Amino acid sequence: MKTGLNHAVRVTVAALSIVLGLSAAAPAAAQCPGDLTGNGLVNGADLGLVLAAWASDGTDQPGSDVNQDGIVNGADLAYVLGAWGNCPAGGSVRAWGLNWVGQCNIPADLGPCTDIAGGLYHTFAIRADGTVRAWGLNNDGQCNIPANLGPCTAIAGGDAHTIALRTDGTVRAWGDNGWGQCNVPTNLGPCTAIAEGSAHTIALRTDGTVRAWGNNFDGQCNIPADLGPCTAVAGGGNQTIALRTDGTVRAWGRNNYGQCDVPTDLDTCMAIAGGNYHTIALRTDGTVRAWGRNEYGQCDVPTDLGTCTAIAGGVWHTVALRTDGTVRAWGYNFSGQCVIPADLGPCIAIAAGGNHTIAIQR
Asked: What is the pTM of this model?
């Protein structure tokens, strides 16, 4: 009877998937509880993913086990049905860890945000209206938002500089410019993503090519000639990381701890991130891998982590957002950056500064 029920459900889901244009193997990218497809609303597509993995361990549908209890059942269905409809724009920002210059003091008037990022000692966020706010150490003007910046879709930050991707695809940067990391190339063209190292800046152009500028002491700005088109970029201290369209990862620049030595058994990935001397990848099955410097256990992925939708790296710690919206962190914890607040609640985004952790709580 159980087998018959599962068979019937899977047939129904297959038909539903055709109608919705749903790929049953699509990885989860939760934007709010129940939004397994990451399209900003909870509807039949998300329901289809849950039903397709009903009563299994969800390994073929990494986002379907929403509550991470090891089985896809009514509890996961409740998440989807309880959040049915449009996801609200943005959420509240939380931060914890090292706070010696106020980088964890969220402005009282910040309001809901859609993106967050952290520099070495500063934090910044994109509000629901697309405007950018920044707080924390401002010795090089990294928190001084340009008056004519306009609405943005993404932000990133290095040790003491800040980068923004505007809605028109143009890139702006400000703060410390000792290595030219804020000198956006005039021929850069429109971009779809940005990232940073300690003192270099990375951009992914709309044609999938990667550009980098700033500190190039270790060759982190020398784009490999055979890199090919990419879908994501990331930076560590002095390394650059790219996710190619085929899901493979490339890394170059400083490699003193093997942070640029991509594991041969990594398989395909859907997200990348970097710490000061370590590199992190989120595989398409939702599992996390990390390599490079591991003095503080920043590369020791917890065995009970489960499947995730996002990753981030601080100087010596690693952060992951699980498919149920909970946050995990490990590695260097001297300032409590790996101690998740007990009242945090489900989150939709994570980021890491030097020794602090940031999240957007739904």
From this structure: 0.81
